[in-house]
Amino acid sequence: MKLHPEVEAVVEFEQARESLAAGHTLDALAHLEKALKLRDNPSWYSYLGYCIAKQRGQIRNGIELCLSSLELERDEPAHYLNLGKIHFLSGNKLEALRIFREGMSRGRHEEIQRILDEIGVRKPPVITSLPRNNPVNRFLGILFSKIGLR
To answer: How far apart are alpha carbons 3 and 68 in whole angstroms?
Structure first.
């Protein structure tokens, strides 16, 4: 039995999300491209953005797709997750963390929380009046960590 194109698009999108959850980005990309051919839904663009950034290395295009989804659904944490993962892929960890935190402020999201827990929180500098990257702070931080005072 042939499904209505709208229904088939939603089925493909859900399969893409399941593939992403399982870590199968290439499979998810195929499902997303098929879903978007059947139904152009801008709220799905952030998922496509992450997949093309991960699989094809198209970081800038992926970021633009995520931002277009965020324009429509500002309070959807999944879009922040996808955008943050792209920034993480590109090596921009600080921006990724900022985006993950912004996503968590829009609503609880288990995967964002898991990522933030894995990354952890940096301890404050030993000497707070000096910058974190000051050699004295770095040396004391390493020393105190090794002897168990930090």
So the answer is: 29
Question: What tokens appear for 51 in the block?
Answer: 């997949």
| Pair 6, 39: CB distance under 8 Å | yes
Q: What is the mean pLDDT of residues 113-141?
A: 89
Check: CB of residue 62 under 8 Å from CB of residue 53: yes
Q: Tell me phi and psi for residue 122, to 5 degrees.
A: -75, 140
Domain boundaries, the chain: 5-119, 123-150
What is the DSSP track for 3-50? PPHHHHHHHHHHHHHHHHHTT-HHHHHHHHHHHHHH---GGGHHHHHH
Q: Does domain 5-119 have CATH number 1.25.40.10?
A: yes
CB of 74 closer than 8 Å to CB of 87: no
pTM: 0.80
Confidence label for 1 from pLDDT (cuts 50, 70 and 90): low
Query: Whole-angstrom Cα distance, residue 109 to residue 97?
Result: 14
Percent of the chain with pLDDT over 70: 99
Residue 3: CA count within 13 A, CB half-sphere: 10
